[in-house]
Amino acid sequence: MNAIGQKVLEETVIKMVLDFYRPLLGKGGRTKLAEAVKAQIGSEAEEFVAARKRSQRELNKISKTINNLLDNITSANREFVDRRLGELKQQKHQLEARLEELDRLSLSRDEINSIVSDSMKFLAGLEFVLREGVPQEKLVALRQCVEKISVDKPKGKIKLATYLVPVGNLQATRAATASI
Length: 180
Description:
The chain has a three-stranded antiparallel sheet with strand order 1-2-3. Strand 1 (146-152) and strand 2 (157-163) form a beta hairpin. 16% of the residues are buried. It is mainly α. Helix 4 runs antiparallel to helix 5 (135-145). It starts with 5 loop residues before the first helix and ends with a strand. The protein has five helices and three strands; from the N terminus they run αααααβββ.
């Protein structure tokens, strides 16, 4: 039979996982992790803040225009003002909906921070769990880190698809290969 020993396989996988996440535990690791989370969530906090400010300015401008129209309404311009008020109210509703959407998206910032914090806690204890934990703990930890493992015994290679972020159900992975 052409099997790989359990101990050799486990040690190789554990080493690959720890090597993969080690840079995140060093200097600038939290920033790298946050960037990976942001890239996967697809949000940049600065863009949301700028978009929200633009939308709020536009909403304020429309509100001022509506107030000016209402202050200057006469019987001669009533039809024009009514038409213009309808247009402005529609724009105002669109901007309010946009602001609500931006507020919901900005909640992603809190989610990003939460995912990063959870991931850093997880990674801080990962080596201990993988080296000293009971088999069930190791299995749970590895499932959070590894999407799939491919073993090519004839070539003596193991290929690991490792999650870029081990917490938060983010699916992006990076493959690595090691010799066994």
